[in-house]
Design brief:
38% of the residues lie in helices and 17% in strands. It has twelve helices and twelve strands. It starts with a strand and ends in a 9-residue tail after the last helix. The structure holds 3-phosphoglyceric acid (3PG).
Length: 307
């Protein structure tokens, strides 16, 4: 059996060594394809792979068609919008993610981004404090819950909305206000931290109306996915409301225009770095390897996302 780790954005060496050790102990081979420049390289590398570990790498129907032996693909991370689940299912390939393994890293970045914007992107001048401000968490999953906890520790007033978390006890337990609707959340958030996945329902769902409903001086923080933003609506909102700010960890399609038009009210990281910590690399990478071994040896499908 051969496990291929195909990561355009490489894991730390500690993580790849750990994955290789897990494979070796199971009696499997492990191959590494990092920083590849074309889909052809990926297609060639998966040709003899039984299992595949990826990060945000796109596992398309074309890639799957090039992997005749593939039995399992694990997205070492949370969001699996980069996997063609229908193509996996059609071939009987199990697709998994590693939920929670990199959440803390992303949550820390979300908090850092709020402070960075509150302090004028660390340039001279009077900034503000996030303590005492209202923090809205859009989607209360693994990352959202940690951001809520850190926000509270920093003295923020925290509210959240998640269409799939409807039990008020979940929010009460964490001392978080449950917003009645997404509109109510945006209306009352000085900082809005996005944690929704990119799905057909959420794509382009954050735009002009929600943004312009936010309070004076509000900041939208996106450590989720670029696809959930309606970029034309965002640009219109930022142009009309010169007090609004947007910071993102996922390079927008229109980054150059946003940067030119809105200066310090906009910031993007050049390459998604939310999960780029040594700890998150090890947690997610090793979890993926362990899930593969548990599946291939014992048929464990606990984190399967294409059931
Ligand atoms: C995730 O969904 O887990 C994050 O977006 C991290 O993505 P990455 O592995 O490409 O850094």
């Amino acid at each position: 059996m051969k496990i291929l780790v195909a990561t355009e954005k490489p894991f730390s060496r500690q993580a790849t060594d750990g994955i290789a050790a897990i494979a070796r102990e199971a009696g499997y081979d492990c191959a590494l394809l990092e920083k590849y420049a074309s889909v052809d390289e990926l297609k060639a590398a998966v040709a003899d792979a039984d299992a595949l570990i990826v990060r945000s790498d796109k596992v398309t129907a074309e890639v799957i068609a090039s992997a005749p032996k593939l039995k399992i693909v694990v997205r070492a991370g949370a969001g699996y919008d980069n996997l063609d689940l229908a193509a996996c299912t059609a071939r009987g390939i199990v697709a998994m993610n590693t939920p929670g393994q990199n959440s803390n890293a992303v949550a820390e970045l979300a908090i850092a981004m709020m402070i960075f914007m509150a302090r004028n992107q660390f340039t001279p001048g009077t900034g503000s404090e996030i303590s005492g401000k209202r923090l809205g968490i859009h989607a209360y999953g693994n990352v959202g819950r940690i951001v809520a906890r850190y926000g509270k520790a920093l003295g923020m007033e925290v509210a959240a909305y998640d269409p799939f978390v409807t039990d008020p006890a979940v929010f009460e337990r964490d001392g978080v206000k449950m917003a009645a609707s997404v509109e109510e959340l945006y209306r009352n958030s000085d900082y809005l931290s996005l944690h929704i996945p990119a799905t057909p329902e959420t794509k382009g769902s954050i735009g002009y109306d929600l943004l312009t409903s936010m309070p004076q001086g509000a900041t939208l923080v996106n450590t989720a996915r670029k696809e959930v933003i309606d970029e034309a609506g965002l640009a219109r909102a930022l142009a009309e409301r010169t007090d609004l700010k947007y910071i993102t960890d996922i390079l927008p399609d229109t980054a150059a225009q946003l940067s030119e038009q809105f200066g310090k009210r906009f910031f993007t990281t050049p390459k998604k770095m939310g999960a780029e910590t040594a700890e998150a690399n090890v947690n997610a990478g090793l979890a993926a390897a362990r899930q593969i071994v548990a599946f291939l040896k014992e048929g464990v499908t606990k984190f399967q996302v294409n059931k």
